[in-house]
Amino acid sequence: MRRLNDSERGASAVVVAILMVTLLGFSALAVDLNALWWDKQELQNGADASALAIATDCAHGSCGTTTNQATADRLTKGNKQDANATVDRIDLSQPHRVTVTVGSLRDHWLAPVLGIDASTVRAAASAVWGGVGGATTLPLILSQCEFERTVLDSPTGIVRVFGKTKDDKTGCRLGQTPHFVAGGFGWLKTNTLEACRTTLSVDDWASSSTGNTTPDGCPGDLLKKALTPGNEVLVPLFDATGGTGNNGTYHVAGYAALKVTAFCLTNFVASTGADCTGSVRWLEGRFVSYVATDAVRGDVPDHFGTVTISLDR
Questions:
Q1: Fewer C-beta neighbours within 10 Å, C or N terminus of the chain?
Q2: Helix (H) or strand (E) holding 270
Q3: For residue 137, what are the β-bridge partners?
Q4: Percent of the chain beyond pLDDT 90?
Q5: pTM for the predicted model, two decimal places
C-alpha cells in the first residue's frame, strides 16, 4: 500500500479545512435557522397574547400607556422560553385597534463561521374590538327593558326574566314594553345544523318558538349544562315584536351577558332547589360586562356591556 508523503498530507489538510467551513456553513443553516424559527413562533405567540389583552383592557376603558406596556412586557417575555424579548411598539393610532410589535436578538452558535454573529427577529399582531354585531347563542331572547331596569355588574341586581306563568307575557315591570310575543316565552327557533343554538345579527327579526316548553332541537340536559348557575351566557335583547304565535318575531337590538343564578324552564329542566310547579317558567340572573371572543364584531355601539375582540390578521 502506498503511503502519503508530507506534501500530500498537507494538501489533504487544506481540502479538509475548506470542506469543514462548508460543513459548518450547512450546520449553521440547519441549527441557527431552526433556532430563529422557534424564536419567531414564540414571539408571535407573545405578540398575539399582548394585542388581545390590551384590546380587552381598552374595550373596558382601561387603556393607559403604562398599563399597556406592562401587559405587553409580561406576556411577551412569558411566551419566550428564555424571556429574551422586548416590546418595540404599541400602536393605538387607529380607532378600536391595537398593533403590538415585539423583537428578540438571537446570538448564533455556528453562523459566526460565515461572519453572522447574531440576528434580530420580530413579530407583530393586531387586535380589534367593538360592539357585538352578531353571535351564535342559546335559542332564547330577553327584553331590553330587563337590562335597562338593572345596574350592570351589580352583585344585587338579580332579575327574573320570562313570564312567571303562562298568562304573564312580560318579564318587565307592569306597563313596560316591549313584552314577549303572545304564546311565547322568549324561545327562538333553532338552527337546523347545530343543536340548541341560533345565529342572529343586530337588526334581524328572530322567529319565535311558541309554547312553554323548550324549543325543538334543544334537549334538557344540554340546556341544564349551559345554564349551570354561575355561567355567563350571551343572549340577544329585543326592543320590538311583531305577529303572534308561530308567526311571532323579535327585533334584535343588541347582545348582553347574563350570569345565571337559577332557572325553571320545565319541570325537568331546572336548577337545584328551584320552585318548578305547574306552568311556572323563569330564568334568573344578573347582567355583567362580557367579552365575547367568538362573536361577530359589528358597527354597533356597546349599549349592553358586551364587546367582541379578535386578532386582525
A1: N
A2: strand 269-270
A3: 198
A4: 35
A5: 0.74
